[in-house]
Amino acid sequence: MKNSVSTFISAKKSGIKLTMLTAYDYSMAKIIDESGVNGILVGDSLGMVCLGYKDTLSVTMDDMLHHTKAVVRGTKNALVVGDMPFMSYQTSIYDAVKNAGRFLQEAGAAAVKLEGGAVVCPQIKAIVDAQIPVIGHIGLTPQSVNIFGGFKVQGNNSIDAKKLIEDAKKIEAAGAFAIVLECIPAKLADLISNAVTIPTIGIGAGGGCDGQILVYQDMLNMFEDFKPKFVKSFANVGDLMRSGFKSYIKEVTEGTFPASEHSFKINDEILKSLY
């Protein structure tokens, strides 16, 4: 089934949980799409998991468009959302609309996501007015890591908690069709989910959200050096990959690969004519 904005809206009304995962290339997008997720986010997290940056701040529009194009080519049914990178929408409403439009016009995405609460609502409204669907993102917004002083849980006091609830309401009023809630206490995320009529997509925000999203490298346990508290390992793909790579290296160095069944043959008479 082809997923759309209306799929997300109707899912909340029907009490059906939404599923999203990240993807950054054609091959992985194809596998994830075939698995039946509702949405694929081409996240600016690609800066950390694909490009090796320490955070998402160095990711550019060119980076995002390049990877979004690849994901779109591998996707048939999931709603593809392009993540607007740092400084692609903060500078002006004009820049926000222009860059959001590039995700649809040049990369083929169906929607965009941008971080922030009330402060970015003018941008959200302008983008939606340009007929571009928007997902909001509040809580731990990685592009604000220098303001937060690190990757920390948000909304742990009454002032911040109230602000998050109000931000969610304002994002809905601005026209967004969904909101990502990241690293927010579960009970607070429940309150936010009940305060808005659009679906909330949680990542580290408990099970009361209307849907969930994870970075696929995290949930497949591909990296041993870091795993966020909110991530469950659904498969140990990293171990399988390392085992496969080591087996390949061993067989090549031992001379057992490639074997005859992996090689092409030539007529012996042709070989004789070469001498």
Can you offer a commentary on this structure?
- With 275 residues, the chain is an alpha/beta fold.
- Helix content is 43%, strand content 13%.
- It has 12 helices and 8 strands.
- An 8-stranded parallel beta barrel has the order 1-2-3-4-5-6-7-8, surrounded by 7 helices.
- Strand 1, helix 2 and strand 2 form a beta-alpha-beta unit.
- Helix 5 crosses helix 6 (121-129) and helix 8 packs parallel to helix 9 (186-195).
- The longest helix has 18 residues, at 237-254.
- The radius of gyration is 22 Å and the shape is elongated.
- The mean pLDDT is 96.
Strand content: 5-15%
Q: Identify the CATH homologous superfamily of the largest domain.
A: Phosphoenolpyruvate-binding domains
Mean pLDDT, nearest integer? 96
CA radius of gyration is 22 Å
For this structure, the quaternary state is single chain
What is the compact description of this entry?
This protein is of the alpha/beta class and 275 residues long.
Main attributes?
43% helix; 2 domains; TIM Barrel; elongated; alpha/beta; 8 strands; 275 residues
How does the SSE layout of this entry go?
Blueprint: H1 5-14, E1 18-22, H2 26-35, E2 39-42, H3 46-49, H4 61-73, E3 79-83, H5 93-105, E4 111-113, H6 121-129, E5 134-139, H7 145-148, H8 158-174, E6 178-182, H9 186-195, E7 200-203, E8 211-214, H10 216-219, H11 237-254, H12 268-272
Parallel strand pairs: 1-2, 1-8, 2-3, 3-4, 4-5, 5-6, 6-7, 7-8
